């Protein structure tokens, strides 16, 4: 019996560098009991991932998505898990967020140009192609293919960071965020998001589970603020907290598990694997014990596996 799961990972359908089928193969090699594909703002990678996992008897596949919501503080990302992949509420939310990206990305590039960097949208699209953007994704023609699939392409700040790396303006993608395109930095530009309540409602209307992703990224000033935010999210229908995450220390994981218990929320966890853009993060790390997830929650989690 396999004992560990990873419920947060990205593929070439968004800003990861492994095609969905390769991600599934890597999860199988890691000996996981379950893997969720949670690309930003798209479900285009799910069919290929599901197909690749069909033959794997010991690993369950959980369909997922990661969406950004209006943050009360810092960054607010909500994972949707185990939803109906045809749900209009989820498809509409994803398209709304993708159209916000298409409008925002040129504004970031313009700011970089004003700072004197020789970079344009073609460089960014080249970085998308190099990262394998859209490759191995059923229904997507891939970056620059000119097919209708490219309308679904998720071009992320990660790709802008990769373009800056390619051109030698930064030594790592992290440096691109820290100096230029991270929140509060000179080339940052925001994009439209739905409120947390609207985001959670869309996921739940689609039959899914709503998870507060990497709560440390809320960047709360103190525990009272964090408690207030989680309280409000719970009121809006939040189901679970991602207590295990590659950015959490063991102490932080324990604290979020306690917090989940206090609020009557379930616990999840995942690596937030991206491949090359986050070279220190591996599939299946940290180890998230299946035994840490409640029995009733697992039933919902695996309802569409
Ligand atoms: P976007 O959703 O296009 O605004 O881009 C956000 C993405 O950038 C996230 O999904 C992360 O994968 C990545 N990201 C955010 N902050 C950093 C950072 N400091 N270093 C590396 N990647 C980051
Ligand atoms: Mn990402
Ligand atoms: Mn995130
Ligand atoms: Mn993520």
Task: Describe the fold and architecture.
Helix content is 39%, strand content 14%. The longest helix is centred in the first third of the chain and has 27 residues, at 88-114. Helix 1 links the parallel strand 1 (4-6) and strand 2 (34-40). It contains ten helices and eight strands. Strands 7-6-5-4-3-2-1-8 form an eight-stranded mixed beta sheet. Helix 5 (157-166) crosses helix 6 (173-181). The structure holds adenosine monophosphate and manganese (II) ion (3 copies). Adenosine monophosphate is lined by residues 15, 40, 68, 156-158, 173-174, 177, 182, 274.
Key descriptive features of the protein:
305 residues, alpha/beta, eight-stranded mixed sheet, 39% helix, binds adenosine monophosphate
